[in-house]
Amino acid sequence: MISKLIYWKFSAVLIIATIFIIASLDSFRLIPQLEILTSASKYWLNIRSSNTLKGHSAWIYGISVSPNSKTLASGSYDGIIKIWDLHTGKLLHSFKGHHDAIESLAISPNGDILASSSWDNQIKLWNLKTGVLINIFKGHTDYIKAIAISPDGRLLASGSLDKTIRLWDFRTGELLYILPNIDWVRSVAFSPDSQTIATGSENGMIKVWQVAEGKILNILGKQSGSVRSVSFSPDGQILASGSYDKTIKLWQLNNGKVLHTLMGHLGAVKSVAFSPNGQILASGSYDKTINLWHLPTGKLLNNLAEHSKPVWSVNFSADGQNLVSGSADETIKIWPMELSINKIYLNKNKKLYK
Fold this sequence. Notes:
Keywords: Membrane, Repeat, Transmembrane, Transmembrane helix, WD repeat
Protein name: EML-like second beta-propeller domain-containing protein
Helix content: under 10%
Structural class: mainly beta
Strand order of the largest sheet: 2-29-28-27
Radius of gyration: 21 Å
Number of helices: 4
Domain EML-like second beta-propeller: 145-299
Largest sheet: 4 strands, antiparallel
Organism: Mastigocoleus testarum BC008
Distance between the termini: 22 Å
Transmembrane segments: 6-25
């Protein structure tokens, strides 16, 4: 069968090499629409972590990478924030000041300020380089589950178990709006143009809000489990939502329709993140793995399974060189992406070639 497939006139060495490669895969073909759901996926994207960072003494909930892709911040159930050199893995600083678990982190667009939210119901702003506490935002009356800084650096959004979303002036700490919700707010994200925010709730509802007036623009729909993470694509056209129902939905924002429902995780999806080029979506799950998805087709590229406990957070570096994951196993893993992603390219017909 293989001999019939290889008809071209190559050298004997090349023929032998080609036969060896084909025989080593369970199913090999040029794969239209990126249908690499078999062992061939490991041939196309053979990703392994390059570094494992240790230092926290409890679950790692939140991670954030600086805009220059050099610094990584991590927040933990131990109430401590740690700052790392992303490339060497060296621990640079430890920030202490929260009195309970730290669930969400965000670094300002200029890379100078780190925002952290905690189960102590406070948001704190820190000088990222020195660890000096700059400001404290108070007002929430229950655990703060998520924060996000607008890409223009003007606003901070926070979502809480007190069933509110709050919009703050990032520079002054002034509370601008309180957006009421009917259930716990689990996730928040700003659009790339800073004009809208998306929120995900315990009841599975996903809402899109206008920032300027604090009004609801759209209710996209409802997932069958709480929405633990929302993320805008880099072009602002698609919203990804990860849910406790083990699925990820990709929403077309101009019409509110579902483009794809991504199924593959065996546990709740805690975190989703787009690659800077908008082609790849990473998802972290309670099933202890990270899935990499191809956005134009919704197909699974690979499953990364090095963590020993649930993966709470995933984040791409802005330069696209690395994916970072934080886990309940108290470690952070760095996954080099550039070399692996550059082994493939997509033509205009969305076919995958080596």
